Amino acid sequence: MSGLNTDPAPDDLRQQNIAIATRFYEALAEGDFDALAGLHAEDVVFNLVGSTPVSGRWEGKAQCFGPLVADAVVGKLVPETIRFSRKWRIMCADHRRVVGIMYGGGMGRNGHEYLQTYCQIMTIEAGLISELHEFFDTALVELVLNDNPTANGPSPVAQPFRFPEE
Questions:
Q1: CA gap 86, 102 in Å, rounded
Q2: pTM of the full predicted structure?
Q3: Domains of the chain (ranges plus CATH)?
């Protein structure tokens, strides 16, 4: 039958995308970076906020999970302390994207604690994450991952972020 649309309905795609994002956060919680990488397209693009060495546009799974994730983030933390996705929530989703927030990290090799709050916007195509926009505290990245403290160190937060309740 020509002209018959066999594409999944938008709500079906939305549910599939939520399932992929859920596996993303679960893989991070378990420290399973192989499973995490398996959720991404080979030509995935990571867009990371800020002007730090990890910021910018990273293209391709090899770059995103090699120099960026393995070396510049995980490699800067004490392995036995790493636990990403200590808390996470999917905030909204549609047939193309999922937005989630996550809290986690570990102890930096430089002795500073890296407990980061992230906001991720995942674009999902053909069942894989094709693009990720990630927002986070760049001052914390500089202090812990780059051993580059601000002149006065971290400032106390007057109105701390509260993780949303379910």
A1: 7
A2: 0.87
A3: 10-145 (3.10.450.50)
